[in-house]
Amino acid sequence: MAELDKARAEDMHFSDGRIISSMCTAPPPLSLKAHMDFIESNLGNSGLYPGTSQLEAQVIDQLGQLMNGTGISGHIVNGGTESNIMALWIARNTTGKKEVVFPESAHFSFAKACDLLDMKPVSVPLSDDLTIDIDKARRVINDRTAIVIGMAGTTELGLIDPLRELGELIPEGTFFHVDAAFGGFVIPFLKDLGHEMPDFDFKIPEVTSITIDPHKMGMSTMPSGAFLTRKIGASDNIATRAPYLTLLKQTTLSGTRCSAAVASTYAAMRNLGRVGYRQIVKNCMDTTYHAATRARELGLELVKEPVMNVLGIHLPEGKEPEQVQALLKQRGWMVSRVEDPKCIRLVVMPHVEKRHVDLLFKELEVVI
Length: 368
Ligand SMILES: Cc1ncc(COP(=O)(O)O)c(C=O)c1O
Description:
This protein is an alpha/beta fold. The protein folds into two domains: 2-25 and 278-367, Aspartate Aminotransferase, domain 1 (Alpha-Beta Complex), CATH 3.90.1150.10; 29-270, Type I PLP-dependent aspartate aminotransferase-like (Major domain) (Aspartate Aminotransferase, domain 2). 38% of the residues lie in helices and 14% in strands. The protein contains eleven helices and twelve strands. It has helices at residues 2-10, 29-37, 50-66, 80-95, 109-117, 134-140, 163-168, 187-192, 260-297, 321-330, 354-367, and strands spanning 73-77, 99-103, 120-124, 145-151, 175-179, 209-212, 225-229, 240-241, 249-250, 310-313, 336-338, 343-347. It has a seven-stranded mixed beta sheet with strand order 1-7-6-5-4-2-3, with helices on both faces. A three-stranded antiparallel beta sheet has the order 10-12-11. Strand 8 (240-241) and strand 9 (249-250) form a beta hairpin. It is globular, with a radius of gyration of 21 Å. The structure holds pyridoxal-5'-phosphate. Pyridoxal-5'-phosphate is lined by residues 23, 79-81, 84, 107, 109, 153, 155, 179, 181-182, 213, 225.
């Protein structure tokens, strides 16, 4: 234990409020307790865990409702990457096609998935507002397209693609997957708070599947991602026979799955409810606007007005994000950066408070 304590002491911790670069956060005590109580569960061998299986079905149903769907099926998986891989895998096996159309702003998990699945990435440039350029997307969606990806909360800047317009370009039989890994637990509550937000989920008729990650803004423990689909039997096309297990086939990428996060996600959603998530999102947005004000006070320009709790900040001429990031790290602060457009990036998760933002900007002023 002393050895473990030593390793832990070298790590950064959400509770310090100095991680302003991660899309994960410290889960509330109830999520942690639920996780620990289900630490033995392994839905890779689900026949042994009918109780956890039932919870997984309920969590998928609730997430489906949050995404404005009915009769949604899916799985709790290890995170956004695994869910995105599943979307491409199902599309490839169902359509027999190989092209994957996604915006330049898509998460790198799609490049990873294309490599694994021997699919062809077709990257679409962004328009001036840094979301997918619809005209350019129109030109590359064709009868070789297996799946089109739209972003509901980009990793780098939290932006939302024009998903209704993108949906209108989807040919019959082509898959349309929305990556709401981050935005799925933000956009619905921003809508509740009166922000004008576009439709991004199963309300759009062409959307076939969605990634939403409870281990990001869903306040669950890691690892918890969700793959949701409205295509009945969609995952049969990736099913593998599993004769030695209690289930006859597996329809996830992972075999053994740490399934404690199923209980943790259930606990987070039952405990917080819509009202709780709304408050969390409101606090994160208030802190994000506070950070935007601090940036402007330093004479720094925002890349865009924040849509959600992710903020891109341009540095003064001649200051390199990589260097500023490294100097902040030396001082104990972790921010992130974006290569295009070149900027530093703050992710204002629930563990980040206004007082942390104030301290960060004091350091940033010195570093610049
Ligand atoms: C939009 C988006 N999709 C997918 C992922 C990948 O998620 P994970 O790291 O949980 O695999 C991320 C990670 O930040 C993300 O922001």
